[in-house]
Amino acid sequence: MIDHVELASSAFARSRHLKEFINTGEIQLAGNSKLHIYGTLTCSSGRRMKVANRVFFRSVHEAEETGYRPCGHCMREAYKEWKAKKWRIDSSLRSQ
Fold first, then answer.
1. Count of helices and strands (H, E) across the chain
2. Does pLDDT of 96 surpass 70?
3. Measured between alpha carbons, how far is 18 from 73 in angstroms, rounded to an integer?
4. Number of neighbours of residue 55 by Cβ within 10 angstroms
5. Which secondary structure element, helix H or strand E, spans residue 2, and what is its range?
6. Angle (CA) 53 55 58, round 5°
7. For residue 90, what pLDDT is reported?
8. Selecting from 3.40.10, 3.30.70, 3.30.1490, 3.40.50, what CATH number does the domain 2-94 have?
9. How far is it, in rounded angstroms, from Cα 71 to Cα 55?
10. Which of 16, 42, 88, 89 lies 20 to 30 Å from 81, alpha-carbon distance?
């Protein structure tokens, strides 16, 4: 996981580093550190978040390992699967 604000001290330098990471494939997804949600780099919801809350991931596996869930806007199918799985787990805990 890479914090957006830790890429560089100025906004311009951050954007240059970010572009380099995207072009080399080191960054595949973006996330919100406060909400623990990850999504595509082109998600309109993700583009509106504060820079201080933005983080980047190399893969879905990395995002999910750190406790993030898929975005319901740009990753609808993955979100539905996550929600169904979470509901099954919550239901089984309640029935005990």
1. 4, 5
2. no
3. 23
4. 23
5. strand 2-3
6. 170
7. 65
8. 3.40.10
9. 14
10. 42
